[in-house]
Amino acid sequence: MNRNCYRYTVSNPVAATFDLLGDRLTLTILRHAFTQRACRFNQWLDYTGAPPAVLTARLAALVEAGVLARVPRAGTVDRHEYRLTELGLATWEILVCVWAWQREWTAEGARLPEFVHGACGHRGPPMLMCHACGRGVTTHDTAVELAEDVLWQLTSGRRRSSRGAAGARADVRFDEIMQAIGDRWSAAVTGLALAGVRRFGEFREVLRMSPTTLTERLNRLCEAGMLWRPEDAGGREYRLTPRGRGLFGVFAFLLAWADLAYPEGPESGIRIRHLDCGETLLPALRCRGCDARLGRTAVRFEPLPGVDRKD
């Protein structure tokens, strides 16, 4: 299986992950693959509203990256469908954390389907835990360590049309979190902010992006309430708001997924250390009701009565 997404040499696993998953339409495709069990082109066309050519390109990229597998449809000769691979199924925790953030930080979050643990019946967001010691983790008891010479070169070698986002069906809740992770540059900037990067020059040193693009992304994240510029720093620093820190779980699982997707790649230059046990954080989800570790098959999403199942 070729895991070098978009057929380019992976210079950094985290950068490659942001290149692949830092995309609104890609995350929408994966979300509906889990929640609606979408596996056919026309289903995603209906759910996303994306132009057919753009949707075709995204599905092809996910197949090339080993996230989806294109397989013959049962009972047909020339028709195919797309199934999540083991690597694709491993994005489940990322999407659960996206759901949890939407539930807490968007005005319409209460209309989202409920997250239910089948064994104990608990309803509500899970807790992020450290796999090594079993304790719960937050941004306050972890340290995100960034190597001094880290360089995240975000370049896919294939231009991705922006029409996918513009053509997708409106979803205010999803729009809000997509401000932070819905394109590769915003995802990378948010990730670096979680790692403690604050100054314009520091962001640019790691990302090597143009000043204009970086300024636009930083301003967008400030407008979305993810970052703020404290007056005591003369407006020269960008710091995470509580809303921005709420994305910690999303990025913890993105880093873990990068290690899974690119096991033979070079060091990413970033790690999250759990201060309580001193180990590199391997994140997992735990039920708040019974403390059991949660796997994909142990939970379900239940739509609320009267709410469209496509929400």
Automatic annotation (TrEMBL):
Single GO MF annotation: DNA binding
Pfam families: HxlR
InterPro entries cross-referenced by the UniProt entry: HTH_HxlR, WH-like_DNA-bd_sf, WH_DNA-bd_sf
Residue ranges of domain HTH hxlR-type in the record: 12-110, 170-266
Keywords on record: DNA-binding, Transcription, Transcription regulation
PANTHER family assigned to the protein according to its UniProt record, in alphabetical order: TRANSCRIPTIONAL REGULATOR, MARR FAMILY, TRANSCRIPTIONAL REGULATORY PROTEIN
Protein name: Helix-turn-helix transcriptional regulator
